[in-house]
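Per reviewer request, we include the raw input and output of the structure prediction for the construct analysed in the revised manuscript.
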Amino acid sequence: MRKWAWGVALWMAGVALAQAQDWPARPVRVIVPFPSSGATDLVARVVTQRVSQDLGQQFVVDNKPGAGGTIGAGEAAKAQPDGYTLLLTTSSTHAISPHLMPRLAYDARKDFTPVAHLADAASVLLVTPSLPAKTVQELVAYAKAHPRALNYASSGNGTIVHLNAAAFSAQAGIEMTHVPYKGTAQSITDLATGQVHVLFDSIPTGMPHVKSGRLRALAVTSEKRSALAPELPTLAESGLPGYSSVTWFGVYLPAGAPPALVERIHKAFTQAMQTPEVAASLAKLGVEPAAPGSPAQFAAMVQADSARWAGVIRQHKITLE
């Protein structure tokens, strides 16, 4: 009986390996759980175009937006783990939404197989020019000297823009009032005129206003200085040791994907990310390729990110209302 079971296991392993080696034998659906022309959609199209070119097979980006990306992620979780339905998503669906939406249609840890950490997008800390602060240290000192006098804009409750500012306030030991907008673009005018004082924005949308003199940039949120704004220090360099926050982009398979298939897809996407053409295209979006790593390292990074945002959400009692 044991020999029979062992034989079946070997046969199944052989079939899985053969399927992985043949992948992709037909077009691959890549679910992007955010709207067309948004940042995640654009990243997906840049990367999948290169993977398609390398592998000689079509990769079809399928936008399934709604509920902060959770609708598309839920659909991906129910797909067959055969490599022909992938999820290309961000921190939102796997590190943030699980702590804001207790009744998700998926379990971020159990219903997916991590494949590849593709890239990261740092944010930039912007302030209105009417503030006397020209460094993070000066901003913190001003906020402490004027308790609750400052406010910060965000693109809505529970967004990474909101969480970045909340985490910054907590670590700096200051209190600011949250002013949510429907998008950061709508807050730029108010920031420039001093109606709001602080905003964590993406580098591509924020820095043109800095260069024009409408806004002032103090630091970036990434662990290391960004190649997209190398003149700016990190928040960690600026008196907040350990502060690091990026929006990450990654690829998942549904749970139960064979290891050989995971490795095959991981290799295809990792190789695509290392090409100069992809890196140059992503830089225009404010996105930098992640350092090559294994699926296990990707999973560990996501869990650490998730735990961090869970703490911020609990501490500040953040809800979607």
